[in-house]
Specification:
Layout: E1 8-9, E2 24-25, E3 29-30, H1 33-49, H2 53-76, H3 90-113, H4 116-121
Antiparallel strand pairs: 1-2, 2-3
């Protein structure tokens, strides 16, 4: 959505990478072409691994860790410094933290449902 006019404000000021990008998704999250491509690739990987149970559990687990790494990057790097090549701001950092924690929790829930006892407690499972 970071490339969509109307959803992304100041689209004409978007840069390929770096903190100079003035484009903002929903007027809140700073985006650049690189930032958008990273999220698109993240989604493509998710679709590719969704065909297997193992992939469906590992994706949110490892993806959550990746988002936590992005959060640490956003906390450490000065948002107005040249090192901010991904174009993250404070709102992006909070989003990455929430996504990272949420995805890791989701992987844990999914892992628990795949145990024999967990599967028996899953919604929609017939009772005997």
């Amino acid at each position: 959505m970071g490339f969509v006019v109307g959803i992304t404000t100041d689209l004409d000021t978007m840069t390929f990478a770096g903190h100079e990008s003035g484009a903002q998704l929903f007027g809140v999250f700073q985006v650049s072409v690189l930032h958008n491509v990273v999220h698109l690739l993240f989604g493509a990987v998710g679709l590719a691994v969704a065909r297997s149970t193992t992939g469906s559990i590992r994706y949110p687990q490892y993806g959550g860790v990746a988002y936590l790494v992005l959060w640490v990057y956003g906390v450490i790097v000065d948002h107005d410094h040249g090192a901010n090549v991904v174009a993250v701001d404070e709102a992006d950092s909070w989003l990455h933290l929430g996504l990272g924690i949420g995805m890791i929790l989701l992987a844990g829930v999914a892992r628990g449902l795949l145990t024999p006892r967990g599967a028996a407690r899953a919604p929609g499972t017939p009772t005997s």
